[in-house]
Amino acid sequence: MRRWGSGRSGTVLYARARARLNAGIACALLTLSAAACGPSAASDAPGDGKGRPAPRTGFSVRYEPPSAPDKANAAFLRGRRVLEQASGDLNAFVSSERLGQAVAVVGRSCGGEGSAYDPGARRIEICYDDVAQERELFEGAGVRPADSEVAAVLAETFFHEAGHALADILGLDLGDRAEEDAADQFAALMLIRGGPAGERQLRVAAREYELSAAGDAGTGPADEGGRDEHSSDLVRATNHLCYLYGADPVRNAGLPGKGLLTAERAGRCGEEWRGVREAWQERLASVAAPSDRSDRSD
Ligand SMILES: [Zn+2]
Description:
β4 (about 115-120) and β5 (about 125) form a beta hairpin. The protein is built from eleven helices and five strands; from the N terminus they run βαβαααβββααααααα. The longest helix is centred in the middle third of the chain and has 23 residues, at about 145-170. About 50% of the residues lie in helices and about 10% in strands. Bound molecules: zinc ion. The site of zinc ion has 8 residues, from β1, α6 and α7.
């Protein structure tokens, strides 16, 4: 998940995470539609893997064969059905018919590039190797087993990339940093819609940003000249916590005043969250599924 890549150009991938410089970057930037960055699928057509045709619109999941080191990671991702569940939530929220576009959600070996949205291919790539990276991060912080944490971060990653996909399809012209923030906010929206279980996943995603920030202290790309369009990991973590508290201050009463969310910021989170939610409701007004058009309008 450590891919550096974001920008308005249609030739650049949109990643969830800030990336350390590595060999995957050149690969990511130079070979967007070619299959030169690790093993690739025999077929590019999304479907159910059983020979049935892919849906013509909406988000549909498929898996490329994993590289040898990724076999266990791929088995975990498939076994937890993270992508199927998240795509299902999204297809219930956004009308496939109104969206009028198909977005492939592809589990694949990325050779360390990191999960991303590829506007050229109109597909969300979720990397098997993210599973191992996230597991290492959480286990390094003493969380064992870290299965549910890994699944939570991957769900949040998927929804972040889905936010980029929707911005692309809807032609939202937000600007680089604003689109990254909007993608984070879309992830928060989708997880908070999931109730207590989704909120727990969002708390885990915030924790992941916090752990990443600790691991990157002083060495991230943002500290080396601001080449990355994402907000800093600590800012992203704090925003997620703020949205959680703003959405349900009772259930998340323990968040303010300790850790990243200050009591002062917490006092504004209700308003912040309403703004975030309403902004996405407006952006999605033309494609919202019928059952979602009138709810949560308070
Ligand atoms: Zn992004």
